[in-house]
Design brief:
Porin, twelve-stranded antiparallel barrel, two-stranded antiparallel ribbon, 49% strand
Length: 283
Amino acid sequence: MRNTALAAALTALFLAPMGANAQTPAPAAAPASPHTLTGNLALVTDYRFRGISQTYKLPAVQGGIDYAHASGFYLGTWASNVSGNMYPNGAGLEWDFYGGYKGTLSGDLGFDVGLLAYWYPGAYYNVPTKDKFNNTELYAALTYKWMSLKYSHTLSDFFGVKNNTYGGACQSGLTGDATDCFAAAPGNSRGSGYLDFTANYPINDKLTLVAHIGHQSVRHYGKLNYTDWKLGVNYDLNGWVLGAAYVDTNAKKGWYTVTEPGSPSNYKKVGDATLVLSVSKSF
């Protein structure tokens, strides 16, 4: 019985709490997932792409989904309504698909490279060949803190600009010289480029100053070249971002005037200056 009593005493000693502050070790924290999925929604008073209205100066509802991996690779999709006056015969929709890789070069200096495809379901030019507006671009950017310098290079014809669609075309006589025309066969527009600089400077934890300037060049179609710029602010209201921005371009009005089908007297200069208001949410 002495052996039994000794064994019981030893068992009690080892099982007893080691002081008043003794605690059971906490389980190890689960490793953070390398996968991130986010979404975004926005309402804008005018969808301006590189300074040019895509909605005939009317509002747009926009949204997208993004997947990112901790390694730097990412994929995403984004969509917006567009005007049937500008993208006729289709669904009045722009649907984009993109993927790329982000990384760090040194300290706050980073890079971003990827491929972006613009798709306009069902839309085509009002020409016998019914050429599409779809466009594919390769892009590369350098980022430093709140600034970025980006270049986009078209692998396809630039939104369908080629002999079939712009060969022999003249700028609108409504706002420009109707004798200013392209040759009958200028060629394709593959290799067009867009260079832009964007800064999103945080004034405080709620308010951000947004500044942008970019230049679009269209290969073989220099009359379509232009520069655009933007200056605005974003305000974070409990996760909802309210935005206001002045947007303008020096695009030649005769080449960037859109008329309503069947109503040539009704037209809009889609590269004119405007104030764009927006509200957006990320989740």
